[in-house]
Design brief:
Blueprint: E1 2-4, H1 13-18, E2 25-27, H2 28-31, H3 42-47, E3 53-56, H4 59-62, E4 73-77, H5 87-95, H6 103-106, E5 109-114, E6 117-122, E7 129-130
Parallel strand pairs: 1-2, 1-3, 3-4, 4-5
Antiparallel strand pairs: 5-6, 6-7
Length: 133
């Protein structure tokens, strides 16, 4: 399951991801309808889902702020709002990477994509690791 942050609503990103991703693609708002979801509540919502990958451009509130958890993955795109249309293709490349090809490989990672640089941390490793191309 891919869960998109509400900031990505209204741009057809879910449709573009669904063209190549076989699982469910939904927005964080779908996980708790008719309520306001603060950023600090998102990890708890993700823990209740089956191996979700959460995608956001809100890097400053998630990268190095959220503790990695083996029940979910967070992908932070460090891009301006004007470039969100690049997310579906960049995400496709990311999930096809040898180290992230399966849900099991992605779980427990908080990933940041900034330009061509991809880094991540896990619950078991305190250091930041760079993902080789």
């Amino acid at each position: 399951m891919i869960v998109l942050d509400e900031q990505l609503l209204g741009r057809n990103i879910e449709r573009d991801i669904a063209k190549w991703y076989r699982g469910a693609v939904q927005y964080i708002l779908d996980l708790r309808p008719n309520s306001i979801i603060k950023d600090d509540a998102i990890p708890d919502l993700l823990r209740q889902q089956p191996q979700p990958t959460f995608v956001t451009i809100n890097e400053q509130d998630f990268w190095r702020k959220v503790r990695a958890d083996p029940r979910f993955c967070i992908v932070c795109f460090a891009i301006p709002d004007s470039r969100v249309r690049e997310i579906p293709q960049s995400l496709r490349v990311l999930v096809r990477h040898d180290e992230l090809r399966t849900k099991a490989q992605r779980m427990g990672k908080i990933i940041r994509i900034k330009n061509e640089d991809v880094q991540y941390y896990t619950a078991t490793e305190r250091s930041i690791r760079k993902l080789d191309p």
